[in-house]
């Protein structure tokens, strides 16, 4: 995995594929390869995984991190609701696409391991965050009328927008399609799955190449993140979350590969999507940017420790 990421970094440094290539590859993984991989994987998996102890540990440990981050930032640091939401996402929303999928495939041997994390983030965390951000007159999307001093968007309209945005997500479409296929009373011929299987096989290596290329992109000058917010995010993301997942997993009787899977997924770094959301809503950009960098640098050492202890 590291070797593939290094190749991506060399490609990015040499600009071999031209400016902005990492964005094109990232979109290819997000919109085509990863949904294909998840659809085929889930369609052939035991549907009980989505209601298993792994999913319970993922939901509870992530919810605890969300609660701690929100309370500390909102009431301890006295930040606005918009900034609190972005910092909370930086502490809880992990890079399950670009890093989670290849790690699940190469380290754990099955892409299904990342599904509970992906679904919880896309079906719970992201919609709730959008609802909060869209509700703030000063923190709405830059494309909404609220920035012009007009009234905020009605609640029903916001809810419809959040639901539509969630259901249009390619990862959600791929995962839900796989779930529907598992519910069919018959099995589709394997020849139907084969094109999707071939495309999905590109998801993991392309994601690692994209990750390496993104590290080679020069960072633009910007204000530094507040030290206490950044320290909180790093502590929650790189230490507390995997520790919580390990404790809950052991409490619920997980062991072996199952325990390794849920703790490894909890140790993933902050997703780059958080920076996208921060830029879109004009809240917490510095924290989102620096959290993505530092938690990514810490992720591999943390995962090596996890693999040494639980592997």
Automatic annotation (TrEMBL):
Pfam families xref list: Mem_trans (PF03547)
A Gene Ontology biological process term: transmembrane transport
GO cellular component labels: membrane
Annotated keywords: Cell membrane, Membrane, Transmembrane, Transmembrane helix, Transport
Domain of life where this protein originates: Bacteria
Localization terms from the record: Membrane
Membrane topology, record value: Multi-pass membrane protein
Family matches, as PANTHER family: AUXIN EFFLUX CARRIER FAMILY PROTEIN, SLR1864 PROTEIN
Protein name: AEC family transporter
Originating organism: Actinotalea soli
């Amino acid at each position: 995995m590291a070797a593939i990421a290094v190749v991506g970094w060399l490609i990015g440094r040499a600009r071999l594929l031209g400016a902005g290539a990492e964005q094109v590859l990232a979109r290819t993984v997000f919109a085509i390869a990863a949904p294909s991989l998840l659809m085929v994987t889930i369609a052939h998996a035991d549907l009980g995984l989505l209601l298993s102890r792994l999913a319970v540990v993922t939901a509870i440990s992530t919810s605890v991190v969300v609660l701690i981050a929100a309370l500390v930032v909102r009431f301890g640091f006295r930040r606005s609701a918009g900034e609190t939401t972005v910092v909370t996402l930086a502490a809880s929303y992990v890079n399950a696409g670009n890093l989670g999928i290849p790690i699940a495939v190469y380290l754990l041997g099955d892409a299904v391991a990342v599904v509970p994390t992906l679904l919880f983030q896309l079906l719970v965390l992201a919609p709730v965050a959008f609802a909060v951000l869209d509700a703030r007159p000063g923190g709405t999307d830059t494309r909404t009328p609220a920035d012009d001093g007009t009234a905020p968007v009605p609640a029903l309209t916001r809810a419809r927008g959040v639901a539509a945005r969630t259901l249009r997500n390619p990862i959600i479409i791929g995962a839900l399609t796989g779930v529907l296929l598992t519910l069919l009373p018959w099995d589709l011929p394997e020849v139907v799955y084969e094109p999707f299987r071939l495309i999905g096989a590109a998801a993991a290596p392309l994601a690692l190449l994209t990750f390496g290329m993104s590290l080679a992109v020069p960072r633009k000058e910007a204000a530094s993140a507040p030290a206490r917010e950044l320290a909180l995010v790093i502590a929650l993301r790189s230490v507390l979350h995997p520790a919580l997942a390990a404790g809950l997993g052991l409490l619920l009787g997980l062991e072996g590969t199952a325990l390794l899977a849920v703790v490894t997924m909890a140790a993933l770094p902050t997703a780059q999507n958080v920076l996208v959301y921060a830029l879109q809503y004009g809240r917490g950009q510095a924290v989102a940017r620096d959290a993505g960098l530092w938690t990514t640098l810490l992720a591999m050492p943390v995962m090596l420790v996890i693999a040494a202890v639980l592997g």
